[in-house]
Design goal:
By secondary structure, this protein is an alpha/beta fold. Helix content is about 55%, strand content about 15%. Strand 1, helix 1 and strand 2 form a beta-alpha-beta unit. The radius of gyration is 25 Å and the shape is elongated. It binds uridine-5'-diphosphate (UDP) and magnesium ion. Magnesium ion binds next to loops.
Length: about 325
């Protein structure tokens, strides 16, 4: 039996490059069929686009396809999960729909999986050639911190761009974390994973949906869903501050008792109050983050809501002949 490949691509307001992306998908489908004898199904997820993108994609797509339209913008992490939920192929390729993920690397990754039965996942790792020094140092620090207390490592600069076997997909969709941090989940799932270095293409149109604030929020999500390290660091700092305060207090007491030195109170008091107050607030905020995650999990809302699903004819034929 010929194997099947599902291509999952989430999109948010990418109408401008819809036709170009479908072109890429068509070329990819042809190449996959020719080289590996696999049939391809395309699963696009409309993550609440407001630019009529779904219609554009639907008009351009051919062969076996599906567009899952979410009821609003749920974020890329949720959109990817929606795609995984709708997949049923032997292998799944996840890629961006903004043409930053090239066909060549997709083919290399698929080839790697086809040829090596003992590999379950091949992921693309951004070589960050274009990133500024400061940004890449920040990223390095982030991964160092987050990986410092775990039984599994989240690889640096690896995102959703990856190919995996159906067993891995089953593992991923069994995890229903409300606040999803895919990078963490991919690593958490385990399996034999292989990295492949790549340089992302430039965006042909539109802009990245990530701004600095978004990135910070996303990093916090990563921490709070995968690491207790920040809590421990802050507790340690708090402990050290308390010890320093204690030592200072002992010194002052000693001076008063034995040397009769009168202590100027106001400056040292200010320092202690501001320092400890600041520490308290930071720690409280951090605990709040974890509590917020707990709250989102316990509310037990679904990760995304589907508005409707558009089908290509061939998709229905394939489903009924299965
Ligand atoms: N995307 C999405 N939902 C979002 C944000 C982004 O589906 O809330 C899609 C977007 O259309 C693109 C992919 O996710 O196909 C990657 O987004 P983007 O290019 O903004 O991220 P970057 O490439 O800068 O990491
Ligand atoms: Mg992009």
């Amino acid at each position: 039996m010929a194997e099947t490949l599902d291509i999952i691509a989430p999109f948010l307001n990418e109408a401008e490059s819809a036709v170009a992306f479908v072109g890429l998908l068509d070329r990819l489908e042809a190449a996959v069929g020719e080289r590996f004898g696999m049939s391809v199904r395309k699963i696009l997820i409309d993550d609440g686009s407001r630019d009529g993108g779904a219609e554009r994609f639907a008009a351009a797509l051919s062969g076996s396809w599906e567009i899952v339209r979410l009821s609003r913008n749920f974020g890329k992490e949720a959109a990817v999960l929606a795609g995984l939920d709708h997949s049923r192929g032997d292998m799944v390729l996840i890629m961006d729909s903004d043409l930053q993920h090239s066909m060549e690397i997709s083919l290399t990754m698929i080839g790697e999986l086809v040829e090596n039965a003992d590999i379950d996942v091949v992921y693309a790792q951004n070589d960050r050639r274009e990133a500024s020094w400061r940004r890449s140092q920040m990223a390095r620090l982030f991964y160092k911190l987050i990986n410092s207390s775990q039984r599994f490592d989240i690889p640096e600069n690896a995102g959703d761009f990856r190919v995996m076997r159906a067993a891995v997909v089953r593992a991923l969709i069994s995890v229903r974390d409300k606040r999803r941090f895919n990078k963490g989940l991919f690593a958490w799932a385990g399996f034999n994973q292989k990295a492949m270095l790549y340089t992302p293409e430039n965006r042909v149109s539109g802009t990245s949906k990530w701004n600095r604030l978004n990135l910070i929020a996303f990093s916090l999500e990563g921490f709070t869903s995968f690491s207790v390290i920040p809590l421990r660091i802050i507790s340690l700092i708090g402990l050290l501050a308390a010890l320093a305060g204690l030592a200072y207090g002992v010194k002052v007491l000693f001076e008063v008792l034995f040397y009769g030195i009168s202590v100027p109170g106001y400056p040292s008091l200010m320092v202690a109050v501001v320092l400890l107050g600041g520490l308290n607030l930071t720690l409280l905020g951090l605990i709040g983050e974890y509590v917020w995650v707990t709250l989102s999990e316990s509310k037990d809302r679904p990760v995304y809501i589907v508005r409707d699903v558009l089908h290509g004819d061939a998709a229905e034929q394939a489903a009924s002949s299965k």
